Amino acid sequence: MNKPLAARLVAALAIPSLLLAPPAAYAQDVADPDYQTADESLREDLALTAEALGWTFEEAEAQHRVAQALDGIASAIAVDHLDVLVGTALSERPGGTPTLYIKGEADEVVLAAVRDSGQEVVIADGQPFSFLELKERNRQFNRELVALGYADLSSGIDITTGTISAEVAPQPDLPADPEAILRELSSGLRDGVALSVVDDLGNAAEYTYGGLTAYAGQTRVCTTGWTVITAEGVAGVSTAGHCSGVTQTYESGSGFVQLDFEAQHRGYWGDVEWHTTVAQIDRPEFYASPSDRRDTLSIEKWWAFSVGESICMFGRTTGVRTCAAQVQSTFYSCNVDGVLTESLIRMNADVTAEGDSGGGWSFDNRAYGSHVGICGGKSVFTIADDLFEAVGAMVMLKE
Q1: Could you give the angle at the alpha carbon of 373 between the alpha carbons of 62 and 347, nearest 5°?
Q2: What does residue 246 show for φ and ψ, rounded to 5 degrees?
Q3: Across 1-15, 79-93, 380-394, least confident range
Q4: What integer pLDDT is reported at residue 202 of this predicted model?
Q5: How confident is the model at residue 294 (pLDDT cuts 50, 70, 90)?
Q6: Is the pLDDT of residue 10 over 50?
Q7: How far apart are CA 176 and CA 352, in angstroms?
Q8: Which residue, among 324, 367, 365, 328, has the nearest Cα to 344 in the 3D structure?
Q9: How far apart are CA 142 and CA 36, in angstroms?
């Protein structure tokens, strides 16, 4: 039920039980957070990235500058030319020359975007499919596999090769030979696909301000992700869509805060839901760790993710901020608790734990996404820029 802010504040006066203490096992929930400035946020994430990857701080800084330049290039092309944009990839060498992938021949729009950025870029044009076409191919590929009986799957696109990589679990009375399975697909989907049949896909869900613990009653189940707001000005917080039964969160100084369910999506736009809050004014801030809180200043656009880009994550189960994983696939799909979940970002490592679901993926003060779980043994998340399409509420930004 949608409630304007004033109504929620009035309702809070009738709920004295909201100031209960949290369960003793969750002492991190009551830590008084330090507010981080934008400069402090960036320096911490660069330092964490450098430590995780064995780089110097200067190398992490150089790689981040290149990633920001690629964001600008992709955004400039995306304005009127999404039909040719495939994606971007960072060099494995920190600060090295990145690559821009373009369908067909790079025209003046593409060349101007690169030239205006001042960033040296390898333009890999002549690619057979745009990102939107690869995304649609993967979507159709998944649906045909499900129709054949292979609903337990994990698949994603590789923008650097223009191909789809997929794994399916064996099914009784169905072919287990990848070539035999591919022959059952539409002719246009048989090429440019690497398909494997594996016994254990490694797919799993991992059961205010963003970054708080989400409870079902007093049972800890997930993590909140972002403060969100609708076009009508109704505010609340997000978490993962599979986090069933969430009823409250806990905020230091406020106690337990009631969460009222608003909307959920599990499917094409990822795995996310949101709740309005009672007894709390929703602010565009998030917990970057148990002891640090930051403003939410921007959102990474869905077309601006770069392969190899470092993104940080904080979930209440993991309990620490980690920047040890980089983007591996910019469109990934898998079966999460029986639901085909798509449009995910897949990282190159598993850096999360059960209970982190819903928690924010971020870098400095930018929202990148909300954690979902594990696909093919690697961490995956819903893109923050897709929340409005998914549930009709967008990440709230500080003005």
Answers
A1: 25
A2: -60, 130
A3: 1-15
A4: 81
A5: very high
A6: no
A7: 31
A8: 328
A9: 42
Rg of the chain's alpha carbons, rounded to an integer? 21
**CA 18 to centroid of chain Cα atoms:** 31
Contact 162, 129 (CB under 8 A): yes
Higher pLDDT, 271 or 207: 271
Q: H/E/C letters for each residue in the chain?
A: CCCCHHHHHHHHCCCHHHHCCCCHHHHHHHCCCEECCHHHHHHHHHHHHHHHHCCCHHHHHHHHHHHHHHHHHHHHHHHHHCCCEEEEECCCCCCCCCEEEEECCCCHHHHHHHHHHCCCCEEEEEECCCHHHHHHHHHHHHHHHHHHCCCCEEEEEECCCCEEEEEECCCCCCCCCHHHHHHCCCHHHCCCEEEEECCCCCCEECCCCECCEEEECCEEEEECCCEEECCCCCEEEEECCCCCCCCEEEECCCEEEEEEEEEEEEECCEEEEEEEECCCCCCCEEEEECCEEEECCEECCHHHCEECCEEEEECCCCCCEEEEEEEEEEEEEEEECCEEEEEEEEECCCCCCCCCCCCEEEECCEEEEEEEEEECCEEEEEEHHHHHHHHCCEECCCC
334: phi then psi, degrees, rounded to nearest 5: -165, 165
Q: Is it the case that residue 27 has pLDDT exceeding 50? A: no
Q: Please give the Cα distance from 316 to 308 (Å, whole number).
A: 25
Which residues on adjacent β-strands are paired with residue 85?
A: 102
Which pLDDT score is estimated for 11? 31
Residues 326, 313: Cα–Cα separation, whole Å: 11
Q: Average pLDDT of 252-257? A: 73
**Which whole-number Å values give the CA distances from 355 to 109, 215, 318, 336, 372, in the listed order?**
45, 10, 8, 15, 10
